[in-house]
Amino acid sequence: MLFEIQSEKETLRPMTQQTPNDDMIQKFDEISVKFSRARDSLGKVVFGQKAVIDLTLATLAAGGHGLLVGVPGLAKTLLVTSIAEVLGLSEKRVQFTPDLMPGDVLGSEVLEETTDGKREFRFIPGPIFCQLMMADEINRASPRTQSALLQAMQEHHVTIAGVRHDLPKPFHVLATQNPIEQEGTYPLPEAQLDRFLLQINVDYPDIDSERQMLAETTGADTSSIEPVMTSADLIAAQNLVRQMPIGEQLVEMILKIVRAARPDNDASDRVRSLVAWGPGPRASQAFSLAARSMALIDGRHSPSIDDIRLLAKPVLRHRMALNFTARSEGMDTDRFIDELLANQS
User: Fold this and answer.
1) What is the pLDDT of residues 272-304, one digit of tens each?
2) How far apart, in whole angstroms, are the C-alpha atoms of residue 116 and residue 119?
3) Which of 105, 120, 187, 199 could form a cystine bridge with 318, CB 3.0-4.6 A?
């Protein structure tokens, strides 16, 4: 829980967090240095995507899942595989296609004969049993297969034939999606989109970065990546994130932004006229965790207002939808979030 209710007026205030001590600060500094090295290593193989690298690392440091959206050829797959290598995580990739079945992802039971002649079922784990799963082009799979990930992403275990199977720790899903291909795709349901901590849009690199990429990737020598962290380091980072303080001013800003995006009775006329449905409480939780994880990987002991502004689009763009009126005005979700932030300043 990020908030607790106190007094008869049910006033929300931040949960009391552990007071930083010398040992905690030392651990913070050690983890922050490792994340800095991870960022530098990733920047040597994925060019011109510093913001994407930071947001993806922040997603994992917060213990969440990420949705990478971009056209083909922008190094989304390379980023995920490189992150798994640099963080020392076991990684598996699943290419989502319309004929992919839930059992192809989760695993299945097979009937086999034992040495004493008896027959019994044995569970064969699917590719989801890893620490970092890449769901490549997740929107090409059918809703039935997409929904197979829901329990794993939320509960970190799967149930096969009534038997619970726990997933490795840590467990994260980094999914990719192509925004321009519509034929043979199935849009992710809102309940599954909400499970992604951030939606990270991957844009084209600038000309200098693309020039560097050409020089670095088409020659005889190419950069390699080496692990700088372990899965234990990532778990320690996730624990530190939840212990980091977050100011009352930031909490109030988070609540104002999230609640202002909902087309309810308290919303402005413009919001009610443009928004079909708005973000739920998970958006506030995502803001708080992601802001603290951004501060951690940046070496700062607490998040700032700039973190909240930076995270507004990745947190909100997949947790709300605009209606036909907004689309007829040429308004998209990112532009609406910009307008929302301007009104909150």
Assistant:
1) 888 899 899 999 999 999 999 999 999 998 899
2) 9
3) 199
